[in-house]
Amino acid sequence: MKVKRFWGVLIAGCFAFAAVLKAGEAQETAAWTEANRATGALVQSGHFEEAFENAQKVLGQARTLWGLKHPNTAKAMNNLANLYVQSGDLDLAEDLYKKALAIERTQPKLREQAAGSYFNLAMIRKAQGDVKAAAGFLSQARAALGGGKVSSGLDSARIDRELAALGSVKRS
């Protein structure tokens, strides 16, 4: 009888411990989500330097919480890359977009996010005057999008407009 009670208490303790871990994880995720939102609010209010520091912190937290292959890590990479674009550091932005794509391409549920990364890479290449690479990234964005629409407003029509604009650049 004592053995059954021991195992019952042990199993109950394991379930309780798992519940505590899950609650802690939920709190960490909520804190990360709020910190990620704060970056956007800082940008909107013109506090670019603080937004940049916060975005770097958010990326570090994502790597610590979930590792290098998690959707939130890719999202944090994209957000920081967007800030690098705004600051004019296209090389660092491109590196982060590519790292995000390495995550996004492996997970079908992230295809729309991947489309956004491809589109952003295309815009970097367009700004650098590399029309051929820009067109390639836009084609990949269209394929990843698959007729859907990304929450940022990216859709097939916008991609097609950019491709047409690149075609006119080629001809001029």
Break the fold down into its secondary structure elements and pairings.
Blueprint: H1 2-44, H2 48-66, H3 71-87, H4 90-104, H5 111-127, H6 131-145, H7 156-171
Q: What is the CATH T-level topology?
A: Serine Threonine Protein Phosphatase 5, Tetratricopeptide repeat
At the first level of CATH, the class is Mainly Alpha
Overall structural domain count = 1
Helix percentage: over 70%
Shape: globular
Describe this structure in words.
It is a single chain. The chain is globular. It is 83% helix and 0% strand. The chain contains 7 helices and no strands. Residues 16-21 have low confidence and may be disordered. The protein has a single domain (14-171), classed as Tetratricopeptide repeat domain (Serine Threonine Protein Phosphatase 5, Tetratricopeptide repeat, Alpha Horseshoe), CATH 1.25.40. The N and C termini lie far apart (88 Å). With 172 residues, the protein is mostly helical.
Short description:
The chain has 172 residues and is mostly helical.
Descriptive terms for the model:
globular, single chain, mainly alpha, 172 residues, Serine Threonine Protein Phosphatase 5, Tetratricopeptide repeat
